[in-house]
Design brief:
Layout (H helix, E strand, L loop, with lengths): L2 H4 L10 E3 L3 E8 L4 E9 L7 E6 L4 E4 L10 E8 L5 E11 L6 E10 L11 E2 L3 E3 L3 E7 L6 E8 L8 E3 L5 E6 L8 E8 L8 E10 L11 E8 L8 H6 L3 E3 L3 E3 L1 H6 L3 E10 L5 E9 L3 E5 L3 E2 L4 E9 H4 L7 E6 L6 E7 L1
Length: 349
């Protein structure tokens, strides 16, 4: 007897993709400055499904999406790169087609394209005296080997003189271009940072600090720091639907570690141990366990976890270093779990 005959009417086994957010507002973006957007898609059906095709509404949008089957209840990320070619407000759509459905899932993003940096009307929360920045924290998330992602820092000249802002201590995997190179008084400019993933040292998290030179002879200090981080994901082999059912699967005891109760009693170092395991049918490899900032340290008991096996992850928080850390402390785990190669644990304090 076939499965369909055993299911109640209207309950045929099929996948159903839905988006956690179908409409994204990207705000203001600069002309011919590509912007990356991410949609999180969840299979709300009762069977696995696969994305068969994606159709953007114009050639200015490139889409990257997973091709492996998505089990019921699991989530994946779809990435769109929008390269603005016309000025003004815009609304674009992406049609996502999946197995077993004739109607697409419509994803929408909207915003406004401005001609140059001087038209930018966003905020500048980072005050470095002579200049103000739109951000001092750049994260290149979920990049793959060969990618060349770009991030922008908007710069406001907060003086009455022409300045030439320059970034200092750039590592070999970062390049910067300046638009314009000389910034007139009261004007806004853009610094484009491009990441060369092939020069990163390995999978997982790479962190560095660069500095903004506001004028000739400017010194390195905590007042002009810009934090840069990149997460390089492993290149995993493509798997068939049958192989996916046997693939390693990371499970974590908790995705949040709450240090607050301990810190109320102790003001030095506090630690907690959480269990991670493998719910798959083949061994799980943990490529790296890293931390954002320097307030955390981690130690993992096993890097190769057998099916149904477990490992202990000890996370230590240094309260003294926490006060000097600008970013929220997080733990990054990179594995060969094809559904979730990256897992982040947040730390409350």
């Amino acid at each position: 007897m076939c499965l369909a005959a055993l299911l109640p009417t209207g309950m045929l086994a099929q996948g159903r993709l839905v988006a956690e957010s179908e409409v994204l507002n990207v705000g203001e973006i600069l002309y011919q400055s590509p912007r990356t957007l991410t949609y999180r898609l969840v299979n709300r059906g009762n069977a696995a499904t696969s994305i068969t095709s994606v159709v953007p509404s114009c050639g200015c949008t490139q889409v990257k999406c997973p091709t492996a089957p998505i089990p019921a209840g699991e989530a994946v990320e779809l990435t769109a790169i929008f390269d603005a070619r016309t000025l003004g407000t815009f609304q674009k759509e992406i049609e996502v087609y999946a197995d077993g459905t004739s109607e697409p899932l419509y994803l929408t993003f909207q915003g406004r394209v401005v001609a140059d940096a001087s038209d930018y009307s966003g905020t500048f929360p980072v005050d470095m005296g002579t200049v103000k920045l739109s951000t001092a924290d750049i994260e290149f998330d979920d990049v793959n080997m060969g990618d060349r992602p770009e991030a922008n820092i908007m710069v406001l000249n907060n003086t009455r003189n022409t300045l030439r802002p320059q970034l200092m201590h750039l590592p070999s995997y970062l390049t910067a271009t300046y638009h314009p190179e000389q910034l007139a008084a009261g004007r806004v400019g853009r610094i484009a940072l491009k990441l060369n993933t092939e020069r990163l040292l390995g999978y997982g998290l790479t962190q560095t600090t660069i500095y903004m030179a506001r004028q000739l002879g400017d010194k390195v200090s905590s007042d002009n720091e810009i934090d840069i981080s990149a997460v390089l994901l492993p290149k995993l082999p493509k798997r068939t639907a049958e192989q996916m059912t046997k693939a390693p699967a990371l499970i974590v005891e908790a995705d949040t570690i709450d240090f607050a109760p301990q810190l109320q009693k102790h003001h030095g170092k506090v630690k907690q141990t959480i269990t991670i395991g493998n719910a798959g049918q083949t061994p799980l490899t943990v490529y790296s366990v890293q931390v954002y900032g320097n307030a955390l340290t981690v130690k993992l008991s096993e890097r190769k976890i057998k099916p149904d096996g477990k490992a202990k992850l000890v996370v230590t928080l240094d309260a003294e270093r926490l006060h000097r850390q600008k970013k929220e402390p997080r733990v990054l785990i990179i594995t060969d779990d094809p559904r979730h190669p990256k897992t982040i644990l947040t730390c409350k304090h």
